[in-house]
Design goal:
Layout: H1 6-15, H2 34-48, H3 53-66, H4 71-83, H5 87-97, H6 105-115, H7 120-135, H8 141-157, H9 161-169, E1 178-184, H10 196-199, E2 207-209, E3 214-216, E4 218-219, E5 229-230, H11 231-234, E6 241-251, E7 255-263, E8 266-271, E9 274-279, E10 290-296, E11 299-309, E12 315-321, E13 332-333, H12 355-363, H13 368-380, H14 384-396, H15 403-415, H16 419-428, H17 436-448, H18 452-461, H19 471-483, H20 486-499, H21 504-516, H22 520-533, H23 538-550, H24 554-567, H25 572-584, H26 588-601, H27 606-618, H28 622-635, H29 640-650, H30 655-660, H31 664-672, E14 685-696, E15 702-712, H32 718-722, E16 723-725, E17 733-740, E18 746-748, E19 751-753, E20 756-758, E21 767-776, E22 787-791, E23 801-807, E24 814-818, E25 823-829, E26 832-838, H33 854-857, E27 860-864, H34 869-880, H35 888-898, H36 904-918, E28 920-921, H37 936-942, E29 944-945, H38 947-960, E30 966-970, E31 989-994, E32 1004-1006, E33 1026-1031, E34 1034-1039, E35 1049-1059, E36 1062-1072, H39 1073-1083, H40 1089-1100, E37 1105-1112, E38 1120-1129, E39 1134-1136, E40 1139-1142, ...
Parallel strand pairs: 14-23, 28-29, 35-42
Antiparallel strand pairs: 1-4, 1-6, 2-3, 5-12, 6-11, 6-13, 7-10, 7-12, 8-9, 8-11, 14-15, 15-21, 16-20, 17-18, 17-21, 19-20, 22-27, 23-26, 24-27, 25-26, 30-31, 30-33, 31-32, 33-34, 35-36, 36-38, 37-38, 39-40, 40-47, 41-46, 42-45, 43-44, 44-45
């Protein structure tokens, strides 16, 4: 027993895991070294298995006290404190775990201590530890670098900015750079796109096509405080962009080196033209996240780095070390140098050493402690998905409580943006409700989502101490502040500050509470205290600057901004605000000097030019102001307010409006020459004037001038025009809003609100006259392009519609003119193209039942600058390419769903059923998300999404089981057709497309928003349209099928008998196709089913009584659904003398429903078709034979199919009827024929059965 752990101890000594004694908990007694290991093993067993954390912590503390060199004991002790909700105690344990700094794992211990830092006293204690780690001779180089990095950050936290800068400088960051960008990175496509700087020989004078304009290399004026290149401050736009940085390093000899990088996302590195690194794994910027070996040549070496960003901080940190991790301080320059010749040799190839490498090497044959260390390190370094996958594998091989795995997995998944998996990590452990750290993690998660009340309920139900000094008490206080419980929050904070006056977070919360209570002096005192304790927080400066400006103390605001600028040398926002304040106090030279500095730092930031323009305009320098605003507009072309500045300074109207806008005399002539009220008897109003001039700009935005006038004809038009809809954006400018009465007098609008103009009481004969301007942004789904539809027909006759479109040179304009009566003239305005479309006396579109969609009937013009469908599909493909990624949760759910599926179609059905029924439909077709779906991972964890989202999830799940599927955009039949002559995003719905493949004989379309449809029955709205199928890089057009009417069937079968005058039926009714889906949607609430069916049956048979109803297939997505029921029809048999007359079926009333009008203006459109089959067996009373039966009817042509017959045999009268309307569309020319057929069918349905009255 005594020597049981000797081999393990020797292994730990060999690995460097044991070291000289550091400190020992009070009361520990010296015992043989083997006993601490036994205590540790017992503690781990108690910790991991049943999750008895207090007992486990006691064992870890005893083990650490007996053998302070036992690294694992301190780590488990620190983790115990974290999970017990005692972060302050864990801080000290992590410091002890860092021991002698000789092992790379000590860097992680220091990192964790820094993360738990709270208050100035802890900061000073950590500062002393970090100084020892930096200066100790035996410190591992990687630990020394990490300690120096943390020391620099800590010195900044303590306000020692100069000392911090010195520490960062010793790390060997490359500080001389040239930068060029931004380049496009739509949907991360820029990472693999070889832009000019990587494709061509390096030349700082060369220009490249950037994201918004031509760009070229320029020097990086200064690094940020921590040695990083802050690309967000240098380049605009800074989201979904790429940039290149170049530098030259001078080496005294050929030697091996290691490049160590910190980046926010994707990076590529070339040295002397050779690609060394390509990585897209990092999800958050850090320190020394990536390392790559390099061979330096003697002389100058050329370094080129490509950094691509999506969202968030965009930066680069790059430093050189030798293979052991010691910094190399080589001369560097941003000047172009001739690269030294020779091979890229290394004297001895040595792979770069990182903590992860050391831990990976030691993991072989070792326990779970190092596994947890590695996962924790991956989270710290921004490799969230790697950490989550590692933790999933570790959890799969573990049992019991596993609280630490649960907490680490939760944090990794949450940082990766996978919220459902983050919650799942907490819920799956057996001790989630008893471990304080897991409860706190759940409550903190709810708080981060704004669900403060839910978080408070979680804490109340727990047994955590909410009034002490632990993590639970601090979280509870924050929740009180967030919920607005200011008085109790203030009391708690003031009590805490009596014991911990150095707690900056408590002072910050107290400032918020004081603001709620309007205690201004307390707000100011608290904010000042926060800044004194944390001079490295931008928010601390911003709050005090805001307070100073509110008091009118601009001098104090400038002092604070000067301090903030020294603390954050690359903060553009600070310097911009400083320039604004300088302008406000009239210090023009200082403001101008500040703006000139900003232009050197970030010459492409439009905000700088706007401020510069305001400065020049204020002092009457009109030409300089105009130049500044013009440059700002070039950099921010979608900003309508900048264009307004330019127009104002140029003292001119839009040239297109000047040339093509209607003059006052023209408008007056139109408004005074009115048609008589009797001229258009069917119209509620007449569109006297519908005129628009649209000036399109190079970025796809447009300026619109609209002139409209209506003549109100009827009193029913009041409701339509009392509230007159207009654009609601900030660029809307009203020029005229008036009504002209029949006597010629004019009245202004009663009110103008956002998006609407309100007019006084409108009477027949009143003219409404409006004119306004507004600006539209470029297409959210495809930047720099314009597309618009102008309708020349609508619900009212239009006398003078006109549309003038002015487009810039270089745009490829494509036009579709639909309908009769539109004239098109092509002109020019300088270098711009002008298209003028005019018409006269356009008839109104008549409202009719079962009408073809107006889009197909109206005369209109579609104009677009999108070059082709190929280009549009390429852009849409770029939006969806990354959205189909799956995670472990989706994989597990997919495997579970298809586990019992015996065929490919069965797998499709199972997956379709899950997405259709379990993922709730929620429309959020706004902005870019009108065309870009959310990631499948997010849709799955949110359990809701729109059509794009649901299709994306289904495709992802199908691909997991080897079924090929693609994204298909359609325009549903109720919205009219897509006009394929003009490339433009005209689709309004997304479904999934499955090509023919093994197991799927014919191609399939699946609509996951049809939550009640069988998977093989495509909804009627999706049938017979052309789909744009996206295939990765290209596209193809595929027609969706048109299912026959028989695919949707109502089958009504009944056994009936007469009870006096009453008819009693035992009915079995079955539905398929869209009818099954329709009934499911109305019967999905079990408690409402009888109510709905009783109402429906009373429409069929007035007075019907329903009983004994039993439902089939309502809660699944099978091919059929149905109902069995008993139906009592009181008085259905009508007595006439000695006869009984009855009809066994209900009336379809086709004339009333489909052809009510004797004449028709357009085609009949029937998107929903079905076959109806009714069969009834009437059991006649004994010795009763029918006197008259309805004659057989059989109509069968290309429009309708109808048959009806009755026969009697052995006392049973059998009747059946079949009805189907065959085409989806009946041409207007055949309307009268169709109406006659409907009339014949209605007449045939009303012929009654005549029986003798056997009761008399």
């Amino acid at each position: 027993m005594r020597y049981r752990f000797l081999p393990l101890l020797l292994a730990l000594l060999a690995a460097g895991c044991l070291r000289p004694a550091t400190s020992r908990p009070e009361g520990a007694t010296a015992l043989p070294a083997v006993e601490p290991r036994a205590l540790l093993e017992r503690g781990i067993e108690s910790f991991v298995g049943p999750g008895r954390l207090p007992a486990a912590r006691s064992l870890f503390a005893r083990a650490a006290g007996l053998e302070p060199r036992l690294r694992e004991a301190w780590w488990w002790l620190a983790w115990s404190d974290v999970l017990l909700g005692r972060s302050e105690r864990a801080f000290g344990s992590f410091l002890q775990a860092a021991g002698d700094y000789a092992h790379p794992a000590d860097a992680l211990a220091l990192q964790r201590a820094f993360a738990l830092l709270s208050g100035r006293r802890q900061a000073e204690r950590l500062r002393d530890v970090l100084r020892r780690a930096v200066s100790a001779p035996g410190t591992h180089p990687l630990v020394r670098a990490r300690a120096r990095w943390l020391l620099g950050r800590l010195l900044r936290r303590l306000g020692r900015f100069d000392r911090a800068r010195q520490e960062f400088a010793r790390l060997g960051f490359v500080s001389e750079w040239m930068v060029v960008g931004p380049f496009a990175n739509d949907q991360n496509s820029g990472f693999d796109t070889p832009y000019g700087p990587e494709r061509e020989p390096l030349d700082y004078r060369r220009e490249f096509a950037g994201k918004l304009q031509r760009v070229k290399f320029r020097p990086v004026e200064r690094l940020d405080y921590d040695g990083s290149v802050n690309l967000s401050a240098l380049l605009d736009p800074d989201s979904w962009s790429c940039a290149y940085l170049a530098s030259h390093l001078s080496s005294p000899r050929a030697m091996p080196a290691v490049l160590r990088l910190g980046v926010g996302r994707a990076v590529k590195v070339w040295l002397n033209g050779r690609l060394l690194l390509s990585s897209d794994d990092v999800e958050r910027a850090g320190f020394d996240q990536l390392a790559v070996s390099a061979g330096l040549r003697r002389g100058w070496n050329r370094l080129l780095v490509k950094v691509c960003q999506r969202n968030g901080p965009w930066l680069l940190r790059l430093r050189l070390t030798d293979p052991r991790g010691r910094p190399l301080r080589l001369p560097a320059t941003n000047k172009l140098q001739r690269v030294a010749s020779g091979a890229d040799r290394q004297s001895r190839p040595v792979p770069p050493r990182q903590l992860a490498d050391v831990l990976e090497q030691q993991l072989k044959g070792r326990g779970s402690w190092l596994q947890r260390l590695l996962a924790r390190w991956q989270i710290e370094q921004g490799f969230y998905r790697r950490a989550a996958d590692r933790l999933d594998r570790l959890a799969a091989t573990s049992s019991g409580c596993r609280p630490l795995l649960a907490l680490l997995s939760h944090r990794a998944q949450q940082a990766a943006g996978r919220d459902s998996l983050a919650l799942k990590a907490l819920d799956q452990t057996t001790c989630a409700a008893t471990v304080p750290g897991l409860l706190l993690a759940r409550a903190a998660y709810e708080s981060s989502r704004g669900r403060y009340q839910r978080a408070m309920r979680l804490l109340r139900r727990s047994r955590l101490e909410l009034d002490g000094e632990g993590d639970a008490a601090r979280l509870w206080t924050r929740l009180l502040v967030e919920r607005g419980f200011a008085v109790p929050a203030r009391q708690r904070l003031e009590r805490r500050l009596q014991h911990r006056p150095d707690d900056d977070d408590s002072w910050r919360l107290l400032a918020e509470v004081a603001g709620t209570l309007d205690l201004r002096r307390l707000v100011l005192r608290s904010r000042r205290k926060v800044l004194a304790l944390r001079p490295d927080l931008p928010a601390a400066y911003n709050a005090l600057v805001r307070l100073a400006r509110q008091r009118g103390d601009n001098g104090r605001a400038l002092q604070l901004l000067d301090r903030q600028a020294r603390a954050f040398p690359c903060s553009l926002n600070t310097r911009l605000l400083r320039a604004r304040v300088l302008l406000a106090v009239g210090r023009e030279p200082a403001a101008r000097k500040q703006l000139e500095r900003l232009l050197r730092l970030s010459p492409d930031d439009w905000r700088v030019y706007r401020l510069l323009g305001q400065l020049h305009d204020r002092h009457g320098r009109r030409r300089l102001a105009l130049q500044a605003f013009q440059r700002a507009l070039e950099l921010k072309p979608e900003a309508s307010f900048l264009r307004d500045y330019v127009d104002f300074l140029e003292d001119r109207q839009d040239p297109a409006f000047e040339r093509y806008g209607l003059g006052a005399d023209q408008v007056q002539q139109i408004l005074t020459r009115l048609p008589p009220l009797s001229a258009y008897p069917e119209a509620e109003a007449v569109f006297l004037l519908d005129d628009e001039v649209t000036h399109v700009f190079a970025d796809g935005s447009a300026h619109h001038l609209v002139h409209q006038a209506y003549l109100v004809r009827t009193a029913s038009a009041r409701a339509r025009f009392n509230r007159f809809a207009v654009p609601s954006g900030p660029s809307f400018r009203l020029e005229v809003a008036e009504t002209i009465l029949p006597d010629g007098s004019r009245r202004e609008a009663t009110a103008v609100r956002r998006g609407a103009i309100y007019f006084p009481s409108l009477e027949p004969g009143v003219v409404i006259h409006v004119a306004y301007q507004y600006e539209s942004a470029s297409l959210s789904w495809m930047q720099d392009h314009f597309a618009m539809q102008f309708n020349f027909q609508g619900r009212f006759p239009s006398l003078r519609p006109r549309w003038v479109v002015v487009t810039p040179p270089g745009k490829q304009v494509q036009i579709l003119v639909r309908g009769q009566g539109i004239e098109h003239r092509r002109q020019s305005l300088g270098a711009e193209r002008v298209d003028v479309f005019t018409a006269r006396d356009m008839p109104m579109l008549h409202a009719e039942p079962l009408a073809v969609p107006e889009r197909e009937r109206r005369a209109m013009v579609l104009l677009t600058t999108v070059p082709s469908w190929k280009e549009l599909a390429r852009w849409q493909n770029s939006l969806i390419v990354d959205q189909f990624e799956s995670d472990q949760a989706i994989r597990e759910q997919t495997e579970k769903l298809v586990a019992d599926a015996g065929s490919v179609l069965a797998k499709v059905e199972a997956l379709y059923g899950f997405v259709a029924r379990k993922i709730r439909y929620l429309n959020h077709d706004v902005g870019i998300f009108g065309k870009k779906p959310n990631k499948a991972i997010n849709v799955f964890e949110n359990r809701f999404g729109d059509c794009k989202d649901k299709a994306t999830l289904l495709i992802a799940m199908l691909r997991l089981v080897g079924i090929e599927a693609a994204y298909a955009g359609i325009r549903t039949v109720d919205r009219g057709p897509v006009f394929w002559q003009v490339p433009h995003a005209q689709t309004n719905h997304v479904i999934a497309y499955l090509p023919a493949q093994p197991g799927i004989e014919h191609e399939l379309f699946l609509d996951t928003t049809a939550e009640y449809n069988h998977f093989l029955h495509l909804p009627e709205r999706d049938q017979g349209v052309r789909a744009l199928v996206l295939e990765g890089q290209g596209y193809r057009l595929v027609d969706t099928p048109v299912l026959p009417p028989s695919a949707s069937q109502l089958l009504f079968t009944a056994d009936a008998s007469l009870e006096g005058d009453d008819l009693v039926m035992q009915v079995r009714e079955s539905w398929s196709g869209w009818l099954a889906a329709w009934f499911r949607s109305h019967l999905n609430v079990e408690g409402k089913r009888r109510e709905f069916m009783a109402g429906l049956l009373n429409v069929r048979f007035p007075g019907a009584s329903l009983s004994g109803d039993h439902y089939r297939g309502i809660d699944d997505l099978g091919k059929q659904a149905g109902i069995d029921y008993r139906l009592l029809l009181p008085g259905r048999a009508r007595r006439e003398g000695k006869q009984l007359r009855l009809n066994l079926f209900w009336f379809d009333k086709l004339v009333e429903r489909m052809t009510p009008r004797p004449e028709r203006h357009g085609d009949v459109f029937l998107p929903y078709r079905a076959e109806r089959i009714l069969r009834v067996k009437l059991h006649l009373p004994p010795r009763v034979r029918p006197l008259v039966l309805p004659p057989p009817v059989n109509i069968d042509n290309d429009l309708v199919g109808f048959s009806q017959s009755c026969s009697e045999k052995e006392g049973v009268l059998e009747c059946q009827r079949r009805l189907v309307i065959k085409p989806r569309r009946i041409p207007r020319e055949r309307y009268q024929e169709f109406r006659r057929l409907c009339h014949l069918i209605d007449q045939a349905e009303r012929v009654e059965i005549v029986l003798p009255d056997g009761t008399q």
